[in-house]
Amino acid sequence: MTDQALWAPWRLDYVKTAGEDEGCFLCRYRDAGPSEDRTNLVIGRSERTISLLNRFPYNNGHLLVAPLDHIGDLEEASGEVLAECMAELQKWTRRLGETMSPDGFNIGLNLGRVAGAGLPGHLHWHIVPRWNGDTNFMPVVGNANVIPQSLESLYGLLACESSNS
Ligand SMILES: [Zn+2]
Q1: Is 158 exposed, middle or buried (CB count within 10 Å of its CB: 0-12, 13-18, 19+)?
Q2: Residues 41, 156: Cα–Cα separation, whole Å
Q3: Separation of CA 67 and ligand 1 centre (Å)
Q4: Which of 50, 89, 100, 131 has a Cα at 20 to 30 A from 162?
Q5: Residues near 66 by Cβ (< 8 Å), separated by ≥ 6?
Q6: Which residues pair with 125 in a beta bridge?
Q7: Which of the four pLDDT bands, split at 50, 70 and 90, describes residue 142?
């Protein structure tokens, strides 16, 4: 299995249960506010971004970083928004590295359904930690989700260290 193939699973069904008929889950979580963040697996907010655990992860520690604004095209994002998204990606990559010691990361953005975007109207970057050997199960099982750590415990691990950021 090549690294190329490992990007393809992102097109699978991580938003099927929060699909278009329910509107945009990123906007919904944004508007729900901090009191609902734990329920919604939102682990961080900044002036222009929201960060959350992917409810349907392709690997342990799979995070999403999105602008607060509902924009689906990179061209629509201001320099400030892009810079803040990159800063958040950097921060969460560092934190995942400190807390989970992965051997590497896939970090990426899917633009358009054909490219695998499950929520094409609202930009969101994926951060997927990678461990040597995880190719054995991840691309093959697809949505079988062999994830050794529960989302709840992962949230606790990451959120407790992000309270002052
Ligand atoms: Zn949205």
Answers
A1: buried
A2: 10
A3: 9
A4: 131
A5: 26, 49, 50, 51, 52, 85, 122, 123, 124, 125
A6: 65, 109
A7: very low
| Catalytic pick among 62, 70, 122, 124 | 124
Single pTM value for the model: 0.79
How close is the Cα of 74 to the center of ligand 1, in Å?
A: 14
Helices 151-159 and 79-100 pack at an angle, to 10 degrees, of 110
- Give catalytic status of residue 124 as yes or no: yes
- Rounded Cα distance between 33 and 151, Å, is 20
Q: What angle do CA 31, 37, 84 make, to 5 degrees?
A: 70
Q: 10 Å Cβ neighbour count for 58?
A: 23
**Nearest Cα to 65, choosing from 128, 121, 18, 125?**
125
pLDDT tens for 44-80 read 999 999 999 998 888 889 999 999 999 999 999 999 9
Distance from Cα 81 to the centre of ligand 1, integer Å: 14
Query: How far, in Å, from the CA of 162 to the mean position of ligand 1?
Result: 24
